Amino acid sequence: MRRRQISYGYRTTDCKSHATEIAYGAAKEGFRKFIAAGGDGTVHEMLNGIMRRISDSVLEGGNLRLQDFTLAVIPIGSGNDWIKSHHIPYDVEEVIGMVAGESFSGQDIVKVSTGATGPGEKREVSYMVNIGGIGLDARICERVNRQKDAGKSGKLLYAGSLIYNLAHPEIFSVSVMCDGKLFYEGECLSIAFGIGKYSGGGFRQTPEAVLDDGLVDVTVIPPISPARMPGAALRLLDGSFLGQKEVLSTRARSVEVNPTDGRRVIMEVDGEIVGTLPVRLDVLADRLNVLHRD
Q1: Predicted TM-score (pTM) of this structure
Q2: What pLDDT sits at residue 117?
Q3: What is the SS3 string spanning 93-160?
Q4: What are phi and psi of 8, to 5 degrees?
Q5: Regarding beta strands 266-269 and 254-259, do their DSSP bridges make them parallel or antiparallel, or are they unpaired?
Q6: Same domain as 260, residue 161
Q7: The pLDDT of residue 148
Q8: What integer is the mean pLDDT of 230-241?
Q9: Considering the domain boundaries, does residue 68 fall inside one?
Q10: Are residues 256 and 126 both part of a single domain?
């Protein structure tokens, strides 16, 4: 960056959620261009720091908007799925070249509100830059994160967690509302919500997602027989998963998922566990400028 005469400041993270605090503080100081050196979790945390600052600015009577910000990433994390949809290389020199060349495009962001079942109860709010999910998807992330906390690393963590959770499936019952209309009601193995196409180390649960169409792709996976599980898992890799006869998919600007069996069902966003059902997802009207190469 110095060789290209790009002025910058930098901070290093010390713990979980620290990137959120750093991004919030920097945005409050007046910074508008951010580079996350890490994986999907770091990008997620930085986005949420930016969104916190925008929310505070609005409450203070300011006019700060999402489109005022730019977010790039140097992918050095264990999970780098978001970059695949934007064709971002792993080479640091190339990434900085893209930054210097202003290689950016607008991308949708989704507000995710979890928990709270009664009037007056406060919902937890998070913001999604790539993919979120409940059921199998979330339990895979939860297991991977526990292994990371124990000092393990590598892309095989995702494959190992997928195999484990396919062998130990947990079925839950929900109703899924898309733009105010009932889309699905019944038992589920997993539900994915996507702006991007890739998650879990390269799996494609929302393979037809469009980054800037103002909609979130929804993939509902009802229970699948054990005999069909291995084939379904393989089809996640090549994007043909939506052809599985049990799978349902749609797109919507807003989605609500409510539990119907009383089970505690966790929600993950960009690989991080953010809360439990019920959940509401809303695509924001504004877009974030992100690093992108056609």
Answers
A1: 0.91
A2: 67
A3: HHHHHHHHCCCEEEEEEEEEEECCCCCCCCCEEEEECCEEEEEHHHHHHHHHHHHHHCCCCCCHHHHH
A4: -160, 160
A5: unpaired
A6: yes
A7: 77
A8: 72
A9: yes
A10: yes
The two tokens of residue 11 are 């901070």
Q: Give the C-alpha separation, 218 to 161, whole Å.
A: 22
Domain that holds residue 256: 110-285
239 and 101 share one domain: no
How confident is the model over 123-138, as a mean pLDDT?
93
Looking at 135-139, 172-176, 208-212, 277-281, which range is the least confident one? 135-139
CA dist 234 to 17, 117, 163, Å? 33, 37, 11
- pLDDT tens digits along 10-45: 999 999 899 999 999 999 999 999 999 999 999 999
| Total tally of structural domains belonging to the chain | 2
CATH of the domain at 59: 3.40.50.10330
> Per-residue pLDDT for 230 more than 90?
no
Same domain, 252 and 138: yes
Give the pLDDT confidence of 55-70 residue by residue, as tens digits. 999 999 999 999 999 9
Judge whether residue 228 has pLDDT over 80. no
In 3D, which of 197, 170, 174 has the Cα closest to residue 107? 197
Q: Provide the edge-to-edge strand list for the sheet that holds 131-135.
A: 248-252, 216-221, 190-194, 131-135, 266-269, 272-276
User: pLDDT at residue 226 above 80?
Assistant: no
**Short-list 154, 168, 138, CA closest to 257:** 138
59 and 116 assigned to the same domain: no
Q: Does 6 fall in a domain?
A: no
* Sequence letter at residue 215: L
Average pLDDT over residues 168-186: 95
